[in-house]
Amino acid sequence: MKLKSLKIENFRNFDNVDVNLSNQNVIFGMNDVGKTNLMYALRFLLDRDVRKNGFKDTDYFKNDTNKIIKITLGIDLSDRDTSDDSKHIIAKVGGARSGTGSELDMFFFQVEGVYDESEYVGIPKIYWGNRLDELEELVQSGIFSPLDNLFKIVYLDPTIDLENTFSKNRKRLFDQKKLDSSDIAISNEIKGLGRTLNEKISSMGVIQTFQTNITEEYKKLKEEDISIEMKSEISINGYFGNLIPYIKRDNDDNIYPTSGDGRKKILAYSLFNHLIQEQEGNKIIIYLIEEPENSLHRSMQIALSKQLFESKVYTYFFLSTHSSELLYEMDNASLIRIHSKSRTNCESYIYHVEDTYKDVKKELNKSLATALFAEKVLLVEGPSEKVLFEKILEEVYPSYELNGGYLLEVDGINFEPYVKVLKALDIAPIVKTDNDLKAKRGQPKNFDLIGINRCLRLIDAPTKNAVEIDYFVTNDAGKEEKDLKLKEQLIYDKKIELFQENNEEIVQLKERNIFLSQIDLEHDLYEVIGERMEEILGDSPIQYLQSHKLLNMIELTKELKKEDCQLIINHNLFEALRKLVPDVN
């Protein structure tokens, strides 16, 4: 079974949205844009405890109860020959599936809410079927529906509490019906020990004195033939009623209280996982996990990411989060961005880490995950560009991140996977890159236009053919040899020539927020603040910066003043940087 689609109509702040799903779904966006409401749409459909109360007038988009609420979940059953969950659904829905071949691949579950003016409530009606225009209404018995035999929704809210979770579920966790004969013998022994314990407690002088005094005080207020006795609850309520979890470290005989909000939260999740698997039999469990990062240290968030995206427990889940760390291990997930413009919108993208990037998945995700929470993202090639731009923004517009901007270093991984995801989620990507040339392997005179082509691929435009640069000279012995100084000059000249020849494409790229340097970042910088660079770095600042890019760029940025940074950001060569922020002076 594969979760495929979610359509929400006229529900809360959603007028009409379609979301592409996978079995692992990440919901993100600013506060108060509807992440919880999207979760509630699923709960109204699949959780009878939510559905039983019906739809209030405030559940209708803009309180318009004349329109019908519709929440429709689409699932893919094409793996029905191998998936137990798909087989389970097919067995339960029976004749609701009709047709042949690919017609049987999709199946839909839907809840409708038609508002009843006399009852002041929207009455939930449930439908299912493999044809959206011919769904079959399900007969409900009270609050129960055949749908409730298929799915179990587990909602984990941000304030999940260990003590309450453990206390409420103690009887389920330690069901005494499951005691075997050996357990029963031990239980009887414990009860005997409990009675002995109370006898010992009662024989203590301090206890006897307290019992006498408190009994006398009681009788002063109410004359009654009773006495007060102190007892341990172990023998009264049973030993299970007193159990609480403690921490025991490996190779340490001591036990420690389960303290710390983060550890308590992780343990509470563990209890839920255990309970659900114990109690729900063959129901398909879908987890709705809301902002679990609350109270979790960064390292625990990363650990939870691994559990969510790799553990079989969380086969199907929806996760709402503000934490980039929780996304480090995602591989095949639907990224669902909820954002507001004139009204709330949803954009979704099925994110798949291609084999090319498997070895650097965590690094790819780490960079991308933080960018997902921005409105516009400037992508730069490496750390030296990032260091420079951060310095400029710090001086000229330090609040750029608060206004939705973000700097993303692609760090040797090409721009394409980032741009593809950001554009799909309606996050504006801005690209700044060098006009690089690279010799073909085994063909030292033929150079690929990797800078220009890198940009053209981002707009799906035809790429350019390689060019020839002959930097070989004939030596005194009549043999050809490389002239590296000549090579450097010829490459420089060729870059300028190519930039001019491809002016039409470069203008088109700018219109798409893709900015190509005529040569590279260092030459751009020199054109704007050449004298200051010489003052700080010496007579050959471009070569100096290029020799140890990051370290030498740090050296430069330490000495840049606010007026230098204003000159840079306002220059046409750094238009990409201006795109990240509002108007600057």
Overview of this protein structure:
A six-stranded antiparallel β-sheet has the order 2-1-4-5-6-7, covered by helices on one side. Strands 8-11-12-3-13-14 form a six-stranded mixed β-sheet, sandwiched between helices. Helix 4 runs parallel beside helix 9. By secondary structure, the protein is an alpha/beta fold. The model has no long low-confidence stretch (mean pLDDT about 90). The relative contact order is 0.08. The two termini are about 55 Å apart. The chain contains 21 helices and 23 strands. It folds into three domains: about 1-165 and about 285-350, 3-Layer(aba) Sandwich (Rossmann fold); about 175-240, no CATH class; about 360-580, no CATH class.
Strands of the widest sheet, in order across it, are 2-1-4-5-6-7
Which fold does the CATH topology of the largest domain refer to?
Rossmann fold
Indicate how many domains the architecture comprises.
3
Shape: globular
Distance between the termini: 56 Å
CATH architecture level-2 label of the largest domain: 3-Layer(aba) Sandwich
Mean pLDDT: 89
Query: What's the CATH superfamily of the largest domain, by name?
Result: P-loop containing nucleotide triphosphate hydrolases
Topology:
Layout: E1 2-11, E2 14-20, E3 24-28, H1 35-46, H2 48-51, E4 69-76, H3 84-93, E5 106-116, E6 121-129, E7 136-137, E8 151-156, H4 162-168, H5 170-173, H6 181-202, H7 205-221, H8 233-237, E9 246-247, E10 256-257, H9 261-279, E11 284-290, H10 298-310, E12 317-320, E13 332-340, E14 344-352, H11 361-371, E15 376-380, H12 383-396, E16 405-409, H13 416-424, E17 428-433, E18 438-440, E19 443-448, H14 450-458, E20 467-468, E21 472-474, E22 480-482, H15 484-501, H16 503-511, E23 514-516, H17 521-537, H18 541-547, H19 549-559, H20 562-569, H21 575-578
Parallel strand pairs: 3-12, 3-13, 8-11, 11-12, 15-16, 15-17, 17-23
Antiparallel strand pairs: 1-2, 1-4, 4-5, 5-6, 6-7, 9-10, 13-14, 18-19, 19-20, 21-22
Helix pairs in contact: 4-9, 12-19, 12-20, 17-18, 18-19
